[in-house]
Each structure stands twice: as C-alpha cells, then as structure tokens.
Amino acid sequence: MNSRDRVLSAFHRSGYDRIPVKHEGTPEVNRMLMEHFGLSNMEQLLCVVGDDFRYVEPIYCGPELRTFPDGSVEGYFGERYKYAQFEAGKYLEACYLPFAGIDRLEDLDRSHFPSADWFDYSTIRAQAEALCQAGFAVCCGTAGDMDFINGIARARGMEQVLIDLIDDNPVYLEIMQARFEFFYEVQRRILEAAGGLIDFCHSGDDFGNQRGPMIGLPIFERHFAPKYGQYFDMIHSHGALTMMHMCGCVERFLSRLIELGLDVYDVVQPTTPAMDIAALQRRFGDRLTFCGSVCVQTTLAWGTPQEVECEVRRRLDLFPNGGLFLGPTHAVQVGSPLENILTMYRTAGSLAEQIDDAILSIGGEDTSGKINLAKLF
Fold first, then answer.
1. Is the overall model pTM greater than 0.90, yes or no?
2. What pLDDT does 375 receive?
3. Distance CA 61, CA 119 (A)
C-alpha cells in the first residue's frame, strides 16, 4: 500500500498493512529528530517517521505582513505575534490584539479583515498531482482554519471571547462571520483548483479544556453548528473529507459534529475517562475516524519507552481494521525523550530504521524552525 491507499483504507475500515501515521512536533523536537538521523529538511523527516499526509497551500500574495521593531510579526487580522521564551524553547504568542476593548460595531476596523483574493491558487493542481503521484493522502487547510475561539481570542482576548459567546456580542459575531467567510472561500477555491484531488480539508476549534467543555451545547448550536454544517457540506460537495482539530475534552460535541458532517476528529486529547481512546471508540467508532491520541503531556513526555509501546499496541488492538490515524495529541513538546518518539513510530511500523540515499536525496526547504503563522490564523 502507498500512503493514500493506507489512509483511505483505514478510513473505510478495510484494513491496512500498517496503521496510518500523522506527525507533529515543535521546531525544537523536529530539529532533534533531524539531527539524530542526519537529515536536512522536514520532508526527509516526514518520510523517516512515516507520515502519510501532505498538504497543498496557495501562495500568499496579499498585503505585506509586517515585522515590527520589537520582533513581532503581523497576522491576517492585524494581530501580532512574538516568541515567548522558556528554558528549553519558545512559542509564538499574541502580543497585540487589534479588536480588544471594541464593544460597538461602529468602532470595529474592518480594514483588518483578510480576503481570499490575497492568495494565488494557480499552483494548487500541480501540487496535488505531484503528491498524488508520490502516493500521499492530500490535504488542505490547517488546524487554525475557522478556529473561532482561539483565533479570535488572539485578536480580542480569550476572556472577552468567552463573554462574547454568552451575550451574543455583535462585534464578536461580525469578526466570526468575517473569519468564516475568509477560510470557507480559501478552501473552496483550493478544492476547485485541485479538481477533485484533495482527500481531506483541515479546520479546528478548541471547544474543550483539560477537564471539560469550554462552552455549552446551546452556545455551540447557536454560533458554531450553522457555520460548520455549511462548511462541511461544501467540502463534501467537492468529494473531500472533513478533518477537525479539537484540543481538550470535546466528547460532548461529537454526536452533533458527526450529524453536521465531521469525518475525522484530529488529535484526541485523552485527559479524562470519557476522552480515553477506548471510550471514544465504543461510542463513536462506527461513525467517526480519530487522529492522534498518544498524549504529549503524559506518555510521550514522562513515560518510559515500554509505556509508549504499550499505549501504541493498545491502539493497534482497538483499531485492527482502521478508524485511527496514529500520532501525538498535539505537537510533541520540548523535553520529550527521543527514544519515546522513536518508539511510538517504531511500534506503529512506520519508522524507517535505515536512512538510505533515496531519503537523503529528497529536497525541500527546511521549515522546522520557521514561524508558521498559518497554523495560528
């Protein structure tokens, strides 16, 4: 099987030669893996760990996204990001929120709203064809597409966004609609340009925290369900499948998301009994495919290689014919032991134990340490 065959067979519960794999790591973790194997770019790393998914993306040709004297960089909605340093690494955090404190529609600066016209889609077909010929499952979008809670919080503030959702703040609703129209249209144009070669469209919203839901079902139904229903319908009309990244405890929303058209639940953060992968498989496994589920906060960061192997084998037993794309619950974090990461992929059967000239000859720019703003928008 090639990667695409493997992924789609797993999605349809038709069996596979090995479980499909989807990798994500912080820049520091990716560099550690690349140095361990003597690799020079991310494409080589994805081949070594056996990642079965690749992404197409349009070319940004919109207004310049500025870099400011303090080192912060501008996002699509006028927000700014700057690295927050910690002992072993760094993370991008929002440092300027253009919509903070705005309570009246007449004070909302809509010049910060982006347009799908800011992208060139002319290379999408060629990108998709090349990935199909290479045998990969082809995706578009990111976990930051849609992202109506986190994404708007980075331009308005998390506390304000949660209040906005309760009191139906018209400023928030205007930003939410602009965000929906932007990402909907970008993905629609990608799908149209690809001409049926996209397998999965990625989006995301973190409806849960570590212990429970962030919002109630009435709020979800009022503000999120109509938009995601329309978005999922559009994706399906182009013959693609829907994949949604959701951090936190979100099992309360899964039945409704399935009704709306969700095909793949991405990352699966198992922090409570209801979020355990076996519990989710029992409740939703006949209607939903899962992606991720190996915890970056516990197993990969603090477990032994034997414990990592045990967790992966448990998943292989739970999903013998498909229904799970194996991977971490988020980007593998700084400080996670190298052997734990290798054990996860080795037990999955995806790790290239020997690095041959074919892998080392793979070109591609090394993006392991670069800012990837697209994942934040």
1. yes
2. 56
3. 5
